[in-house]
Amino acid sequence: MKHQGEIPRQPRRDRLLREHVHDPYKTRLKLPEPTVCPQCGAVFHEGRWHWAPRPEPAHEELCQACHRINNRYSAGELTIAGDFVPHHKDEIVHLVRHQEEQEKAEHPLHRIMEIEERDGTLVVRTTDIHLPRRIGEALRHAYHGALDFHYEEEAYFIRVKWTREG
Questions:
Q1: Quick one: 126 exposed, middle or buried, by C-beta within 10 A (0-12, 13-18, 19+)?
Q2: Among 7, 109, 120, 157, which residue carries the largest CB count within 10 Å?
Q3: Is residue 50 part of a domain?
Q4: Which of 76, 89, 96 is nearest to 118 (CA)?
């Protein structure tokens, strides 16, 4: 119903546009269900990867995490630095692995690819962008220190740095 003096409605033109994020490992086509990763055993069912017993018969295809691990192409990198690190390395690695296990239980594609030690600094490379931030937040919560993170523009990649002196 139109009232006298009412301004006619115009369609909105200020819609939210999503930026293009390029992840070369993201599956472009829907996988047949069920699909099993022959390397790690994760099962693709109901549109996502799960940890489940292998169904028979099942299509086989490498999951994105295993594909990244095989190509050594990480999506995230966490640098753990400072004078604090060499004296508490075992505790820190335990915390890092614990965070991975918690995340991986719910999200099979979120994994640590490697933990490298260079001159008292630890570098953790992951298969996704969420795990490095989760680990960095856990380090800050447990040991305080400074946390910084940077998402790469138009790429599926994050750099996280946690530092604590003393």
A1: buried
A2: 109
A3: no
A4: 89
Q: Which of 91, 150, 157 is nearest to 126 (CA)?
A: 157
Q: Which residues contact 120 (CB under 8 A, 6 or more apart)?
A: 81, 85, 86
Structure tokens at 82: 């400072």
Residue 36 lies in a domain: no
CATH number for position 90: 3.30.70
pLDDT tens digits along 119-155? 999 999 999 999 999 999 999 999 999 999 999 877 8
Let me know if residue 95 belongs to a domain.
yes
Q: What does the alpha-carbon distance between residue 146 and residue 139 come to, in Å, rounded to a whole number?
A: 9
